[in-house]
Input
Amino acid sequence: MLVRTGSLVSSFQIDPSIRVVALVGAGGKTSGMFRLAAEIAATGRRVVTTTTTKIFPPAAGQSPALLLLDKDPRLETLPRLLADTPHVTVGRNLLSSGKLDGISESDLETILQLADVAVVEADGAAGRPVKAPEPWEPVIPAVVDLVIPVVGLDCVGKPATGATVFRLERFLSVVGIREGEPITPFALARLFAGPEGALFRVPSRARVTPLLNKIDLLDSCYPIEEVTALIQSHMESRINRIVVSRLREPIETWVYETGPVTGGTGGSGNS
Output
């Protein structure tokens, strides 16, 4: 049963043991990262949003401050920025494409010495609502505590083509459908079940909580309760809940409880 929640922080059970959150997949990673960071900052914790891949610089209202490592390689100004505002975005440099280049593992270690939480976009999807990862993806930090695999529910019912799916050939192979066939809830269930799907390269130590975003764009032919139940029936036992959301205003979140967790519980060390 879906239960309405008041926030992403409560939906994902973000507590002091969670120092590093990584969002992977497609269909709402960037929106989810900035919204989650804002909620964490509102609790009084210092939070950095960043990427290990490439993202566009935060838009107005997404992040109060931006720090580039090519201007400040040792993050010497980060403590002052976090004193002024509890949420700062960090990138390596601004690329010719207009995107921020990703940080390294050692950069993240420095960030964790200065901030309480790092929320990391660790995958790319070129704006599509669903993807399957190539062998080199996603770029999840080794010290991650919580991994959030994201799928945009607006993909359900649409034909599996490059217009909807990022890494199309990989996706077709993982979920077992042909190009042009509709993306069904069962196909999404296969995406979460297969070893090369949504949980590919997720460290065993990490807690995993999927995010099904864009519930407002889900075709009415597919009741969300049936979609979540089908996905849950195929997921690994380490996953104990699914979060369902609308990350556009007015923001709404729900949780589908799936049972006791048997995987990692998080906690990366430095405070």
